[in-house]
């Protein structure tokens, strides 16, 4: 293909530059799947919690003599299946992910090789070349997960940044995501048919485009009900209007002054 | 195992509660590995950039007639390998990950099934049950990657939150991670032997514990050199002291008033 060089440089400016050296950050779906954790120390305890938070079926292989208190607690509470001995190759049967955290480099490497033969994604703690993936520092608030990775350059800094972000987020951050989900459900009750679907989607996009993140976190049940009054007219009021409407009963939106345009509606896409 | 119920409730308080319903967020290592992207539209363009940012060897299978401008640009710049036709099963040979973004549910499902047979991790865009993993909205700043996932509850909100975080972060966030890495390298020059290793590690931890994230982002080359003067005494000065030392030449740390303790050193672990 022949190309005009001047055109190439215009294109290069138009599209995002590649920034090499990162990882591919993924939200792995492990619900109900068998994750094998080999080891029962502090690192294993962290891995187990990560997996349980993602609804995995966790099996821990480790002699009960060396268990960390948290791991012991997860076993006692039947949150995980415990195999009370050292690793055996048959432990890999049915496993969809393997996390190794034992102080035995030779055993670790042997497990890594088995996983590669069986094509099971694996992470050998503290041995980067024997990892299909790394973990990061994760902030969790309901459906919201924020993961900080320094790409191996500083796990302690990742934790610092995670704490910084957790402090910066609006108080209702996790809840706001549920709220928007709820708004979608309420909308579907008002406009249930599949013919309504394009208008529903356009209106929901308009909502996301009109309010900033802090405003979304502030949305109350009452705000949502008031907001939905504007759906038939395919409008989304400024947040100030929702605030002004608080406490008003049986608002008749068609009689509101807001429709004279003076409130600056977000109309159109 | 019999347990005293009162003891169980104490233990339950001691350890983090499981918060089900999340994903397992991972930093996948795909450097130099073959990722197959099926499709050449807008979604494919986003996937390709994600993979290139993680140094993957990307192959795009899509007829050149339907290519998005960004995908066309990546091909023209030889950032990806292009196979100019629709998907064929042999495309999976050697692939370590498969990302499908085509408007053809039947073809997508067929590719998903092949991937499962071959145990290749795969993501079929817009078909959650045919995904080993989801993508999120990623902020990137050098070695720092922050990924926001709403666990499928609102990709637009994820992008809003990502923008909010990007705005909240100190300006030098990515750079600060490099700085700490640099500090570690400089320290190793001062204290190179393996006998120095425990002291080096303790001191570096002390550095992370003494400064908050904003202070770390503010650390200059000069600050680092001054900071290293405190290493022989195994001390880490408050950040105010580093600020005060700026512009001083040939600081003799042993003659500084700071050692009378009045500056509030971080001593001990």
Automatic annotation (TrEMBL), chains A, B:
Its EC number is 1.3.1.76. Pathway: Porphyrin-containing compound metabolism; siroheme biosynthesis; sirohydrochlorin from precorrin-2: step 1/1. GO terms for molecular function: ferrochelatase activity; precorrin-2 dehydrogenase activity. SUPFAM superfamilies: NAD(P)-binding Rossmann-fold domains, Siroheme synthase middle domains-like. Residues 170-237 form the Siroheme biosynthesis protein Met8 C-terminal domain. GO terms for biological process: siroheme biosynthetic process. It comes from the Eukaryota. Pfam families: NAD_binding_7 (PF13241), Sirohm_synth_C (PF14823), Sirohm_synth_M (PF14824). InterPro entries: Met8-like, Met8_C, NAD(P)-bd_dom_sf, Sirohaem_synthase_central, Sirohaem_synthase_N. Residues 141-167 form the Siroheme synthase central domain. It catalyses: precorrin-2 + NAD(+) = sirohydrochlorin + NADH + 2 H(+). Keywords: NAD, Oxidoreductase, Porphyrin biosynthesis. NCBIfam families: cysG_Nterm. This is precorrin-2 dehydrogenase. It comes from Clonostachys solani. The lineage of its organism: Eukaryota, Fungi, Dikarya, Ascomycota, Pezizomycotina.
């Amino acid at each position: 293909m022949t190309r005009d060089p001047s055109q190439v440089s215009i294109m290069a400016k138009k599209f995002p530059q590649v920034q090499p050296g990162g990882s591919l950050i993924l939200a792995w779906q492990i619900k109900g799947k068998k994750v094998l954790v080999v080891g029962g120390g502090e690192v294993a305890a962290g891995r187990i919690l990560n997996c349980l938070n993602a609804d995995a079926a966790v099996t821990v292989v480790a002699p009960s003599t060396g268990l960390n208190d948290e791991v012991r607690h997860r076993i006692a509470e039947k949150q995980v299946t415990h195999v009370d001995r050292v690793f055996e190759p048959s432990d890999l049967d049915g496993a969809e992910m393997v996390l190794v955290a034992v102080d035995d480099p030779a055993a670790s490497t042997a497990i890594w090789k088995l996983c590669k033969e069986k094509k099971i994604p694996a992470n050998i703690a503290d041995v980067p070349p024997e990892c299909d993936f790394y973990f990061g520092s994760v902030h969790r608030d309901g459906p919201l997960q924020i993961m900080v990775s320094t790409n191996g350059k500083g796990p302690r800094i990742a934790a610092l940044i995670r704490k910084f972000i957790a402090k910066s987020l609006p108080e209702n951050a996790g809840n706001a995501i549920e709220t928007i989900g709820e708004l979608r459900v309420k909308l579907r009750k008002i406009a249930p048919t599949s013919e309504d679907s394009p208008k529903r989607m356009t209106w929901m996009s308009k909502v996301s485009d009109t309010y900033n993140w802090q405003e979304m976190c502030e949305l109350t049940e009452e705000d949502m009900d008031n907001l939905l009054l504007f759906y038939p007219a395919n409008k989304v009021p400024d947040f100030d209007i929702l605030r002004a409407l608080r406490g008003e009963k049986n608002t008749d939106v068609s009689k509101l002054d807001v429709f004279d345009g003076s409130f600056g509606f977000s109309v159109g896409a």
